Amino acid sequence: MSDPILSIRDMRLEFDTFDGVYKAIDGVSLNVAPGEALGLVGETGCGKSVLTRAAFGLVPSPPARITSGEVLFGGRDLLSLREKQLRSIRGAQVAMIFQDPMTYLNPVFKVGTQLVDAIIAQQKGAIARRAARDLALEMLDKVHLPNPQRQFDSYPHELSGGMRQRVLIAMALAAKPKLLIADEPTTALDVTVQAQILDLIAELVSELGLSVIMISHDLGVVAQVCNRVAVMYAGQIVEDAPVADIFDNPKHPYTLGLLKAIPHPLRPVEHLAGIPGSLPNLYTPPTGCRFADRCSHAVPVCTDGKPPLMDLGAGHRVACTLYRKEHVDA
Amino acid sequence: MLKLIYRRLLMMVVMLLGLLAIMFVVANVAPGDPARLAAGPDATRDMVETIRVERGLDKPLPQRFVIYLGSVVTGDLGTSIHTGRAVLHDLAIYFPATLELVLFSIGLAIVLGIPLGVIAAVNHNQLADHIIRIFAVSGVAMPMFWLGLMLQWYLALELNWFPLGGQLDLMSDPPTRITGMLTVDALLTGNFAIFLGAVAHLFLPALSLSFPALASIIRVNRAEMLETLNRDYITNARAQGIGPLRIVAAYALKNALLPTLAMIGLRFGWMLGGTVLVEGVFDWPGVGLYAAKAAISSDFEPIMAVTLVLGASFMLANLLIDLTYAALDPRVRAQV
Amino acid sequence: MTDVTFSERHESSIREYRRMAATFRRSSSAMFGLVIVLVFLLMALIGPWIAPFPEDALGAVHLDNKLQPPSAAHWFGTDEVGLDIFSRVLIGARVSLQIGLIVTGVAMLIGVPLGMLAGMSGGWMRETIMRVTDIFLSIPGLILAIAIVGALGPGIINAMIALSLVWWPGYVRLVEAKTLSLRNETYVDAARALGAPMHRILFVHILPNCLSPIVVKASMDMGMAILGAASLGFLGLGAQPPYPEWGAMISIGRNYMPDWWWYSFFPGLAIYLTVLGFNLLGDGLRDVLDPRQRS
Fold it and tell me: Could C134 and B15 be called an inter-chain contact, meaning their C-beta atoms sit closer than 8 Å?
């Protein structure tokens, strides 16, 4: 395996809030290989969005505070960079698309203006306005937006949700970035539009050969685009495996729970298994496994200490006491 | 768009009619005998009755209102007791001065208020923000007339930075009267020294008049900027690598300006009303001072005329604000 | 039936009040406003008893003492007939409180019922009320007040009448909007469907829910009404000298600027602080009672 394009090592992040210190990310390590599409999956509030945003300096500090870790990208530790240097990486080398296309376009500027602005910023001003305009129209065409010329002169409120997400994807990919971070890109869309957008992302990823981190709470969505999946729970990675392994051979009880919660498309829904309980209180997180409270397989050792992420071979890693050497042997 | 303007202008006429009706009722249900007042203290009973019939004061109220409306439409706003001239003539003299003062004040409030609001929001919870916020919160409570007196005392009398009052130094000749606004007339006639003198005279009254409005513009703009800077589209713009100056000055400010604009429209009323107080302090020959003098001597026709003119100004200003709003916000524009 | 204690039965409301109190206490500006308002109320209540020269409030003359600068005996100096300005400012608080309460009270008494009526009735009734309200709001309040005083004649009573007459439309707007939004709530619909009489719907369902924004507005308006009355006093249209009203004091004092600056300085400071106090208090109350209304 070649050197990863992005490597997050032992990242910890806390929020100083009125009610105390909220430990949102706790010792997360994550690699993304060139050309790899990684799915980052977990419940709302598990820290998956914060993790990727914080890695590229998009979480305001204060209240956020990164207490340890490094984020290696293009041979540099992003956490040691200043805002100005980060800005030259964002947009140009790392592109992001977000959950709700309704709120990510500025309502009082034309779509075209925003695209051209973004392209000029991505290229650090090394592109003429006219050339940026041509590129913008080309990108609108590439994301299969009907009648690009007209949409270019439209305001965001004149576009549908799916069209806006296409605009945002066009904006993100205009700079030919190395890495695309797609944060729940289809959650806010209708189901039919969801499929179209996912197809578009898959198509563009293979065409442009970029790496992707796709954030979602929906394993089904991730499966359509990604070749590897990392499952996050309460600010930690609990399982990390090739996508086929996650579906065929899930290890962590939490992953199992997530899989059981997906309705089968053909069978009638008799009972959809939820996971009982809710996320632990992250102001005073449990010292042991954070899932132990809700886990049907929990044993007393589970609360003793944080289980490390163990390699089970074939690129499958899991953080669960059940797979500790001594347990497996016994 | 034109249709909207027509509709609004039509509504304005209706509102002004309503305003006149209310004023007319107030003037005529009040105790006191307008005929006696007009006749003067030494008039005999017969003289008072003659004036009553002459002025139609013996007719029933609705009929008198119609007669009054008729004369207003033909430009006859009555006669002022304390100046002894036709009210329309007085307004032509005094209104330009008030317009100049109010426009200068609103300009001052916008030019100072919007940047200060932005600075406070960008430096949220830092020293600059705290100072600006204290200023904004406390400024609304400032009595304009008292602030005017204090500014006059310190900046004009003690430090001698500004003239005490009036529109121009006694020594200088006013420019040819074209618009009646001295600064404009001075520029039109190319007299730059007079222009500077007129601006110096404008500054303190305008500052007093705009102070509470300035404070509330800062306040709203700061709050809106803070909210806008947390919006998703700003995160996206930052994720694209767009620089902070463009983000603050264009992407965020254009959105934050919309509610600020609504506040400016509202506070324009404070300024129009405040002319009555501030013009007296700075001896500014405008309709505010005119109305205040008229009110003291229960000289009602000038008061009604000033109310009408200031009401119309307020309505026009709000129409302008709404049109600007539509120009800034494509979502509103789509609806009109 | 039960041995549920008071604190158990009302547990959730008590917790809610505690939360409100905590929010309020955390805001230093709200607390500052509260302190100013309390000091002002205290001055209004016991001013005449703690004033060093209570007889100076009205009409006394000590010409040998005139226009003295601030000193240990006369903290704020004396005026042109030798009256102690500190005593007059202190006793003026009572006048201002009176004006604020009456103007705000009358405005509420007119505006709140009209607003509920407009919000509940619809049709020509609503149109009439709202259009008249619009006309009143289309002209700067101070101008209208001056016109009314001009018709009625100068004086503190007429000033209060004028201010009350221009103040109510704000309450109509506020209450009408709130009533309209409440009218379509499920529980109001349900009450109507069950045949509850109109007055019951109004007093049980609508009015209590309008209370928070009314309280917030009233607190702000106390300050603004005091400012309005002082403005009329300054113009010579409100309280007449030697009545110890702050605006009227400045109106005379300005003739003695700048050499006898204290004459108009201290009454103005009193107006400023009082209005500031009520504004800050209103702001704090809004954050506690009506957080969504912030803007």
Answer: yes
The answer to whether A106 contacts chain B (CB < 8 Å) is yes
Instruction: Please tell me the predicted confidence (pLDDT) of residue B211.
Output: 92
Give A193's pLDDT tier (boundaries 50, 70, 90): confident
A165 Cβ under 8 Å from any chain B Cβ: no
pLDDT digits (tens, 9 = 90+) for C268-277: 999 999 999 9
C positions 197-256 inside 8 Å of B (CB): 223, 227, 230-231, 234-237, 247, 250, 254
Domain limits of chain A? 6-93+181-280, 104-176
Give the pLDDT of residue C294: 43
Interface membership of B259 toward C (CB under 8 Å): yes
The conformation of residue B157, written as its DSSP 8-state character, comes to: I
Min Cα distance C39 → chain B (Å) is: 17
- Chain C residues whose beta carbon lies within 8 Å of the beta carbon of residue B220: 295
* B137 contacts chain C (CB < 8 A): yes
Confidence of residue B168 (pLDDT cuts 50, 70, 90): confident
Q: Are A97 and A172 in contact (CB under 8 A)?
A: yes
Supply φ then ψ for residue A40, to 5 degrees: -115, 115
Shortest distance, CA B228 to any CA of chain C (angstroms): 13
Q: Which of B131, B148, B120 minimizes the C-alpha distance to B210?
A: B148
Q: Which two tokens stand for residue A81?
A: 């960079």
B141·C261 Cβ contact <8 A = no
The three-class DSSP label of residue C59 is: coil
Q: Could you give the CA distance from residue B174 to residue B193 in angstroms, rounded to a whole number?
A: 11
| B299 pLDDT tier (thresholds 50, 70, 90) | confident
User: Which residues in chain B touch residue A64, judged by CB atoms under 8 angstroms apart?
Assistant: none
| Three-state SS at A151 | helix
Taking contacts as CB-CB distances below 8 angstroms, the residues of chain B near C27 are: none
Determine whether A149 is exposed, middle or buried from the number of CB atoms within 10 Å of its CB (0-12, 13-18, 19+).
Answer: exposed
What one-character DSSP code corresponds to residue B296?
H
- Identify the structural domains of chain B with CATH numbers, from first to last: 99-277 (1.10.3720.10)
pLDDT, tens digit (0-9, with 9 covering 90-100), for A121-166: 888 777 888 888 888 888 888 888 888 888 888 898 888 888 888 8
Q: How far apart are CA A44 and CA A100, in angstroms?
A: 15
Condensed to tens digits (0 to 9), the pLDDT of residues B85-109 reads: 888 999 999 999 999 999 999 999 9
Residue of C288, C273, C246 whose CA lies nearest to C92:
C246
Token pair, residue B183, equals: 């600064």
The greatest distance separating any two alpha carbons of chain C, rounded to the nearest whole angstrom, comes to: 77
Q: What is the 3-state secondary structure (H, E, C) of C164-215?
A: HHHHHHHHHHHHHHHHHHHHCCHHHHHHHHCCCCHHHHHHHHHHHHHHHHHH
Name which of B142, B149, B307 is nearest C144 (Cβ-Cβ): B307
List the single residue in B26, B281, B295 with the smallest CB-CB distance to C237.
B295
The domain covering A6-93+181-280 belongs, at the CATH homologous superfamily level, to: P-loop containing nucleotide triphosphate hydrolases (3.40.50.300)
- Counted across chains B and C, CB pairs separated by less than 8 A come out at 142
- pLDDT, residue A329, reads 46
Q: Say how many residues make up chain A.
A: 330
C1: pLDDT confidence band, cut at 50, 70 and 90?
A: very low
B115 near C CB under 8 A: no
CA–CA min distance A174, chain B (Å): 10
The dihedrals phi and psi of B299, each to the nearest 5 degrees, come to -95, 95
Of residues B231, B242, B255, nearest to A118 (C-beta)? B242
Nearest C-alpha of chain B: how many angstroms from A103?
6
| Domains of chain C in sequence order | 93-279 (1.10.3720.10)
Cβ–Cβ under 8 Å, residues B148 and B208 = yes
Query: For chain A, which chains pass the contact test of at least 3 CB pairs under 8 Å?
Result: B
